Amino acid sequence: MTICKHCGRCVDTTNGLIGNDDLDELVSIAGRLFYVAPDNILSPSRKRAYVAVRQAIWVVMRTRWRMTLQDIADVFDRDHTTILHGIRVADPIMVDQLDDAAQHLYAPL
To answer: How many degrees, rounded to 5, is the angle at CA 41 between CA 85 and CA 36?
Structure first.
């Protein structure tokens, strides 16, 4: 994953360009929805509340944006196996709530 060479604002993933604004908006929506500061979501903290929100974001990025595990790992400065584990154990209720709240960010499938 790299920053787009054309505008410098998009993330060039394996499956196309995802805007940094979209990533920021997804983290912001998750933070408001689950009462967690965006800085804490992006931090290396392993507090349960932060980890649960992070995992829900990872599922949305994987399923809706079809980002690879490595692309998600690069965004969050994690290993791709951490992302895989997080996606497998993510709380489905939190994922559904975030997915519903962030519908406007998704391109038509």
So the answer is: 120
